[in-house]
Amino acid sequence: MIFEASVHGRFQPFHNEHLEYALEGKRRCSFLWIGITRYDTTPSDINPLGRDREKPANNPLTYFERISMIRHALLDAGVEAGGFGFVPFPIETPKRLPVFLPTDVPCFTTICEPWNEEKIAVLRDVGYEVIVLWKRQSKRVSGGAIRRDLIDGGTHWRSMVPAATAAAIERLAVADRLRQLQKGGGGPPASIPPAV
Fold first, then answer.
1. Distance CA 65, CA 29 (A)
2. Overall average pLDDT of the 61-78 stretch
3. Most distant CA pair in the chain, distance
4. CATH number of the CATH domain containing 70
5. Does residue 17 lie within any of the structural domains?
6. Other Cβ atoms closer than 10 A to 148
7. In this structure, what DSSP letter does residue 146 have?
8. Which residues form the domain of 86?
9. Which residues contact residue 58 at a Cβ distance below 8 angstroms, ignoring those fewer than 6 apart?
10. pLDDT of residue 193
11. Position 193 in a domain
12. Which of 130, 147, 166, 194 lies at a C-alpha separation of 20 to 30 Å from 66?
């Protein structure tokens, strides 16, 4: 078993496939680092390449909100609190990655879209060992589908996320936040309501 390794993602929000990915990563190592990409969602910091995934409307949750959501989901799934930790993971600026996660920590990943292949090349170029957990033809769950359902006032999103994520989405009024972002206003709040 590997001593420590990592998984990474935007987790906007943390959904069932993210949980499956994190749990498989944890199964293969003693300590799992969970890298949060696009950790700074400040609109002025958007990459000039303008990837759709970097737009404010696709990043409604702050770093703190995401790590809280993921932590609760992993604890609910039976992962011990001392078995994982969080770290910013600036895949958008690859040369900065080793500042946050040493290159001797392997990166677990999955492949289900071209962006995953691109990330693997970027990570290997920086010096990380990349271990592919699985390859699938497509995503079964996506953050985009969850965000769209929330904006539309649907309920299908609930079947796509762990209970901890659903509770956080409701507590943080993410549907309202997404609608506001869609109109081009605001961003994640500066202050975070306490967890209950």
1. 25
2. 98
3. 48
4. 3.40.50.620
5. yes
6. 15
7. H
8. 2-182
9. 12, 52, 143, 144, 147
10. 45
11. no
12. 130
**Rg of the chain on CA atoms, in Å:** 16
- How far is 123 from 29, CA to CA, in rounded Å? 19
Identify the CA nearest to 38 among candidates 29, 49, 30: 49
User: Span 115-122, mean pLDDT?
Assistant: 94
Q: What is the DSSP string of 30-53?
A: EEEEEEETT----GGG--TT--GG
What are the pLDDT digits (tens) for 126-151?
A: 999 999 999 998 888 999 999 999 99
What is the value of pTM for the model shown? Answer: 0.90
Strand, coil or helix: 4: strand
The 10s digit of each residue's pLDDT in 5-43 is 999 999 999 999 999 999 999 999 999 999 999 999 886
- Residue 171, in any domain of the structure: yes
Whether 191 maps to a domain, the answer reads no
Q: Which residues of 40-51 are buried (b: 16+ CB within 10 A; e: fewer)?
A: ebeeeebeeeee
Q: Is the peptide bond before 106 cis (omega within 30 degrees of 0)?
A: no
Q: Which residues pair with 85 in a beta bridge?
A: 33
